[in-house]
Amino acid sequence: MNRILCFGVWAATLLIGCAGVSQQPVFTDISGSDTEPIKLIRADRTDDNVLQLYFTGKTQLLSAEIFIPESGATEVCTAEPMEAPDDFVATETSTQKTNGYTAFSLKPAMAIGIGEPFVLRGSVSDTAHGVLDFALPFEGANTRPARLRITEIRPLYSSKPKSEFIEFVVMEGGNLSGITITNVGNKHTPHYVFPAAEVKQGEVIVYHWRSVEDGIRDELTAKITSGGTQACPAARDFWGAYTSLPKRNANVILIKTSARGGVQDALLYCTEKEYAKRGAVSGWNDETLTREAKVAVAGGVWQGGETLSSAVIAPLTASKSLVRTTKSNTNTAAAWRLREGKAVTMGSAY
Q1: Which of 68, 148, 168, 347 is spaced 20 to 30 Å from 54 by Cα?
Q2: H-type alpha helices, the chain
Q3: Which residues contact 182 (CB under 8 A, 6 or more apart)?
Q4: Rounded to whole angstroms, how far apart are CA atoms 186 and 338?
Q5: What is the pLDDT of residues 284-316, one digit of tens each?
């Protein structure tokens, strides 16, 4: 699966200094007065760090290089023309409708580390001698994604004890970069994406929804120890950026990776009170959750069915957790049970 970046701002000032690179794509547009400016329609980074760029109209690639902000290294890319993939959709502009697009596949000559920030810099021109200079920020693809399994979750918000979490065990060692926990945030930022961190098989990872204390740190390596009352001595702690949480009385949580492997695990749950309101008739009552439940079943990580009635239905409260009771690959509602507050074992899988 490609990592897709789409941009809609085309003219800006190029500012790249010794401290690093801007967080947004930067463009400098130089075009003839009677022509429509060149636009970048889409930019993809594949799982092998190959970069694919799509421009409006008939364009020619003038230059392309990789810049590593941390080291200052630069290297020219090898470039080839390419056709659009089956899932390509151009935005609605008159130029694209009339003149189509031009696409290039750019392969970095240098090795790029997992999660390492880098910038693709270059220029393209069109038949009217218009020029577009671009600087696009990326991160190195995760070519060795770890595989995670959800083992315990306390998802409901409360001002006390402020300890909403999802616990995982590492089934296969690798890197966490780009692995995503879906549907855990608000509507604007619904997902959490792990930073680059090497983990070993058997390690326990805890994602904490909220950052509400001083001294907390993502434990990117085994040498980093997080502070905070909710940090787990026997696990690797990672912290969400939220200070409060939306109500999640019914949810579909997926563990996804954009790299090879797709969907890794899932949990479908609903509180008893919420289920009594919705029942089997109204179902998930949310298009996103309905879609994600289908993804979980189609991916083989949830065998209990995609309907709300197939979820874990429990008298879940802010002080209770759901825990996985089996190490087998069978993942249905029967594989989960409720734990009372004092029995919750955050950071100790199974």
Answers
A1: 68
A2: 94-99, 272-282, 287-298
A3: 190, 191, 252, 253, 254, 255, 256, 292
A4: 25
A5: 988 999 999 999 999 999 998 999 999 999 999
